[in-house]
Amino acid sequence: MVTAEEERFPEGTIEAIREFAEIKCKRCETPDELLKEFGDCEIFWMFGPNLCLKPEALEKLPNLKALFRSGSGLDSLPCDWAKAHGVGVYNTPASIAECVAEHAVALLISYIRQIPQYCARAKAGYEWGKVEGMDWHISHRTLGLIGYGNIARRVEKMMSGFDMKTLHYDPFAPDSTDLETLLKESDYVSVHCPLTPETKGLINAERLRLMKRNALLINTSRGPVIDEEALADALDNGTIGGAAIDVMCAEPPDVKSRLLQHPKCVVTPHIAAFSADFEKNFWAFSVEKLREICEKL
């Protein structure tokens, strides 16, 4: 079962799934509609948020064995409920890992080299060749990675050619440094942790004050991992040097958002996972994960 109509899928995808499973395709808007359409389902497959995915509805699905979200983040799934009821939770983080890592690296390098800022200056007719605000360098600096999964490891590999020192903070990774040390010692901090109750607001005013005054903060994970007001304050008062983000707490954000309008913050509209290879990877990984899930049931 999926949360979209059949015509949403590329040619061959549904046919490939039907080789090993029965599948019904419909986007449900309410819990009642979900129960009516899929009362006997074993796997609930979704991509993106879905308002009908509520514990009170899932409890009425007697055959439910797995929740599957194509992509990376699991914050839109009722993971605690699933764990308590023996329902497996699955995703396909590898399908977007390379793209998101590339975007994080692009944000970092473009900010260090001030590419968005100088592009705007050139187009606005500012004095050609006049340089100010080039306050960063890449090589021989320290990169801090918050979270050390697929994406962060790819970022580390991509940046390795710059001869950088890399620190990582992840409670589940061996040889991880503590977060305070990472923030104090890093010139550039890139956030790659999932959004959980423990990571919501992880980067707050107190932790921003631990960072170097010229440090840059990159976020391609989830907006609520960072306290946005605290970050805007830190940019205002020079606590850190700048930020580049692809995700925000409210999406789309208010056009008057302090971060969206801040001259020291580069913003992209949650596009890190997308590239020319997105569709191919997204559906191929989804089909294989569904096959794995079905083999386990």
Description:
It is a single chain. α10 links the parallel β7 and β8. The strands form two sheets. A six-stranded parallel sheet has the order 5-4-6-7-8-9, sandwiched between helices. It has a three-stranded parallel sheet with strand order 1-2-3. The chain is of the alpha/beta class and 297 residues long. The protein is built from twelve helices and nine strands. The two termini are 15 Å apart. The chain has helices spanning 13-17, 31-38, 55-58, 79-84, 94-112, 115-124, 150-159, 179-185, 205-208, 228-236, 258-261, 278-296, and strands spanning 43-46, 66-69, 88-91, 142-146, 165-169, 188-191, 216-219, 242-245, 265-267. The longest helix is centred in the middle third of the chain and has 19 residues, at 94-112. α5 packs across α7 and α5 (94-112) runs antiparallel to α12.
List the defining traits of the structure above:
297 residues; alpha/beta; 6-stranded parallel sheet; 3-stranded parallel sheet; 12 helices; 9 strands; 35% helix; elongated
In short:
The protein has 297 residues and is α/β, with parallel strands linked by helices. It has 12 helices and 9 strands.
**What is the approximate shape?**
elongated
Whole-Å distance between the termini?
15 Å
Identify the strand order in the major beta sheet.
Answer: 5-4-6-7-8-9
In N-to-C order, the SSE pattern is HHEHEHEHHEHEHEHEHEHEH
Which runs of at least 5 residues are low in confidence (pLDDT < 50)? none
Whole-angstrom Rg: 21 Å
Q: Can you count the beta strands?
A: 9
Number of helices: 12
* Helical amount: 25-40%
Strand content: 5-15%
The secondary structure category is alpha/beta
